[in-house]
Design a protein that fits this description.
The structure holds two protein chains of two kinds. Chain A starts with a helix and ends in an 11-residue tail after the last helix. Chain A is built from three helices and one strand, in the order αβαα. In chain A, α1 (3-26) packs antiparallel against α3. By secondary structure, chain A is mainly alpha-helical. Mean pLDDT of chain A is 85; it is low at 92-98. Chain B is mainly α. Chain B has one domain (10-223): Arp2/3 complex 21 kDa subunit ARPC3, CATH 1.10.1760.20. Chain B is built from eight helices and two strands; from the N terminus they run ααββαααααα. In chain B, α1 crosses α4 (82-100). Chain B is globular and about 55 Å long. In chain B, 57% of the residues are buried. The model of chain B has no long low-confidence stretch (mean pLDDT 92). The chains are: A mainly alpha, B mainly alpha. Chains A and B meet through α1, β1, α2 and α3 of A and α2, β1, β2, α4 and α6 of B.
Chain lengths: 98, 225
């Protein structure tokens, strides 16, 4: 893979990982999950969830954790595709069949 | 599409969990068989799982001032069939419930049913149907991923409507209300997921022909698209 391609992919990955944090700062509107919860409580005034999360991140940490999930996913994709290319016939010889 | 922790009655949480369990067991069996019989497909499955991780964490703005996220289930379902993606989807949902406080443990069965089961079955079924009638690969991949995404949110709307029927208009009224929340927001995101998935499928055809042939996506001597 050419150096320029590698740098472009790395930059794209960084943008994706940072995206949740950036969008949280900019404001992307109310999530549909929260809208649905609000609809439930408006149709059933006084409804209280019968079970609460054992742990929930503080608000400031939520977006970076989504970024972490993206980073884990990208690492998995990158690692698997890299191994696929290495295993492909002709890869060692620099062929394009990978 | 995540139904938040405690936002379904306990009995319905148990019912959705029980409904999802056989699919999960089948997913484990299929994944083990796939990895045992077609070892070279393992890397492709890993990449599909990673794609699901990335897509389901991408909360994006949409129309009407609201935001949501794609699911990423469709791609893996089209490549490996629906059962394996039940397992992958459940892992993603468990990760989000435990680490991100997104979704919930009590609602895991319901969320798995909508995203990992219905989403995977619709994505796989759409793709197979369109390919059988001669649709090009890119179109089948686009429709499979987009409809998988939308079907997930339609199912979530139905689950919430069953739990909280409207006191005046009943189940149908509540279903329409929750669809209004989820479907309008999701439509542009589903189209985006469809386009991205189609591009990835075309990339895979070009660069992972051997693995796609092994898992039956491409015929041994066919062009594929």
């Amino acid at each position: 893979m050419r150096r320029r391609t590698k740098l472009s992919l790395a930059a794209a990955a960084l943008v994706l990982v940072a995206l949740p944090t950036v969008l949280a700062r900019v404001g992307i509107g109310v999530g549909t999950d929260n809208q649905a919860a609000a609809a439930v409580t408006s149709s059933r005034p006084g409804y209280q969830p019968w079970f609460h999360a054992l742990w929930a991140p503080p608000a400031w940490l939520e977006a970076p954790l989504f970024g972490l999930q993206i980073a884990l996913g990208l690492a998995l994709i990158g690692g698997c595709l890299w191994l696929l290319r290495r295993r492909a016939p002709g890869a060692r010889a620099g062929g394009e069949e990978a | 599409m995540h139904i938040m922790e405690g936002y379904l009655p306990a009995a319905q949480c148990a019912a959705w969990g029980a409904a999802s369990a056989p699919f999960f067991v089948q997913g484990v069996r299929k994944a083990r068989a796939l990895l045992a019989e077609k070892r070279s497909a393992a890397l492709l499955l890993g990449a599909a799982g990673g794609y699901c991780f990335v897509m389901s964490a991408l909360k994006l703005p949409s129309v009407a001032g609201s935001s949501s996220h794609p699911t990423g289930i469709g791609l893996g379902a089209m490549l490996f069939g629906p059962w394996v993606m039940v397992l992958v989807g459940a892992i993603v949902l468990l990760f989000q419930a435990l680490l991100l406080g997104h979704g919930g443990i009590s609602t895991l069965g319901a969320n798995a049913f909508s995203m990992a089961i219905v989403g995977a079955l619709v994505g796989w079924g759409t793709y197979r149907l369109l390919r059988r009638v001669g649709a090009p690969l890119w179109l089948a991949a686009f429709a499979g991923a987009a409809l998988s995404d939308l079907a997930t949110y339609v199912t979530t709307s139905l689950q919430l409507a069953i739990a909280f029927p409207d006191q005046a208009s009943g189940l149908a009224g509540a279903f329409a209300k929750f669809l209004g929340i989820f479907a309008i927001t999701q439509l542009p995101l589903a189209i985006g997921e469809g386009v991205l998935t189609a591009l990835i499928m075309l990339y895979l055809v070009k660069h992972s022909r051997r693995e796609l042939t092994e898992i039956g996506i491409l015929a041994p001597e066919a062009g594929g698209s």
